[in-house]
Amino acid sequence: MIRVFPRISDSKVMELFRKGVEGQWSAALIDWEHPIHLDHHERQAFARVLTPVYLGEQTAMVGASSVIPQFFAAHHTEAQLYLATFLLDEARHFETLTRFYHKIDRRPLEVRDLKEIFRYQARLFKSRDRLEWLWGILISDILARHFYGTLVKAHPDSLFAQIGSRILLDEARHLAFAELYLKDALARQPQLGSKFLVMRDDLLWLMHTIYAALREDARVVGIDGSRLFAAVCDDIEKKVRRLRLAEPLEDEPA
Ligand SMILES: [Fe+2]
Ligand SMILES: [Fe+2]
Hints:
Layout: H1 12-22, H2 40-73, H3 77-104, H4 115-124, H5 130-154, H6 159-188, H7 192-213, H8 215-220, H9 225-242
One fe (ii) ion binds near residues 90, 141, 144, 171 and 174.
């Protein structure tokens, strides 16, 4: 049932929506003439290592567009508004990274090299359920945050550092929303916890497989895979604890 005049509460989600609106920026704000500071070898490695995240930006945008109607149907107007900003964030990340590829005159990996990356994206949207999708996005954004953060630190004063540090601000909002919304949803449906843990394991395994194939390129651009994954796993486990995903349900035997 469509509500013409829905009640919009002054919740934390609305705060994130307003922050999202006010935090919008455009690729035109990047100084595209800023030195790239990457040699030929590094450009090639960058183009390859960036591919999974680049595709992730596009699928996050498309995923948001397909779950917004679910939030609408559930009369979660605040979340629906927030996701409109999320969608534009991901669209902008996609556009900015596309321009970066042109700037360094390189292409992402080709489709034949992307099997595991496609499997990752398919897993993210397997159930077509907004809560599972959001949990997968939370996990992906944790990886994105460490990935961009490491590259920004490894290449300060570079064009990519400018891009990455802007994207990182958006990702912080994405993480905040996912945790906030899921906390509420899981309080009402704690039985989702076990599904989420299976999804965490699947996504982590696919992430490892993807980066194992890109290990050498990752090293060239300054990413230490084991350090990156240790930080990612640590953050995911913090979320698991905060969302109480691993706690047994009340009617389960201890
Ligand atoms: Fe993004
Ligand atoms: Fe994101």
